[in-house]
Amino acid sequence: MESRILRKLVPTNALALGMVRAAICTFVLLDVLLTDFADLGRLPTTVMRPTGAMQILPWKFYDLLVTPQGMLVLKFLLVLSLAAAAAGYFTTASTKSAALLFLFYQGLVRSFGHFNHDEMPVVYILICLAFVPSGDAFSLDVTLRRVRTHIGDLVYGYPILLMRCLLAWSYFSSALIKVRVSGFSYFNADNLPSLAIMNSLDNLHATHFRLAFWLPSVRGLTTPAIVFVCLWEFAFPLAIVSRNARRTILSLGLVFHLLTMLFMNLSFPYHVAAYSVFIDWPRLARWVRSRGRPQIVTEAEAAA
Predict the structure, then answer these.
(1) How far is C-alpha 260 from the chain's CA centre?
(2) Is residue 302 assigned to a domain?
(3) Domain range for residue 213?
(4) What are the E-state strand segments in 218-304?
(5) Which string of DSSP letters, residue by residue, matches 24-54?
(6) pLDDT in tens, 86-145
(7) CB proximity list for 251: less than 8 A, separation 6 or greater
(8) How far separated are the first and last CA of the chain, in Å rounded?
């Protein structure tokens, strides 16, 4: 019974889990490659405010690390771990080192006061992938026969279900916090225009769109828009249990993040990348292969 219910919710084979590992690790790898770590190393450690477990490490360590050379070493280790994890090479070790180093890197950035929840679902997904048999398929370990395939579908299905729940909770909790902290004032017609304009005036964003200045002229539509977005976030967990709801919710998510970038100069690439945990990758691969096969046309069909 448990196995049948799980199969209805998620793909339950090693290939699906392996392809999710490859997709997530490849995205993080590309983002790390495009990030200039040396710039972070030029910041003075005197402005750092380490939080949580980051306080365990001594200041001498940060003085050595937070330099252009030290940050390049961190980037090299992170790239090496993520590349091995994406390829499924020594997957048991590489996924753990990738998760640990990426978690440390995110903690280091937050120690300089830049807080953003965009990366958090992927951080949790990397931690999940580090402790499950994600290298049993679609990996170099399989090609080189470094792994022993597990028996049963639960060991592959539950991690995918957990990763979907983590992403759904990110959206659901976002709506919950908005309503709990701000109450009905969050839906005020002036809230969205003022917030969007404030974000568009600063210089702390990668994009500098100016569509926010158009919002005051349509302030009568902002309250319905905010209510709709909040309801969509509350409904996100339905994507876990319903395929039809999943198509609608994820499609709305892509539109939402595009509009958020255009109107508020806030992008959430990691959240969008995490949508890959909702893709049935083996099924998609079969569909692509079937579309690429040449069709055999009979003489009767050709004559028609």
Answers:
(1) 16
(2) no
(3) 172-281
(4) none
(5) HHHHHHHHHHTS-HHHHHTS-GGG----GGG
(6) 999 999 999 999 999 999 999 999 998 877 789 999 999 999 999 999 999 999 999 988
(7) none
(8) 49
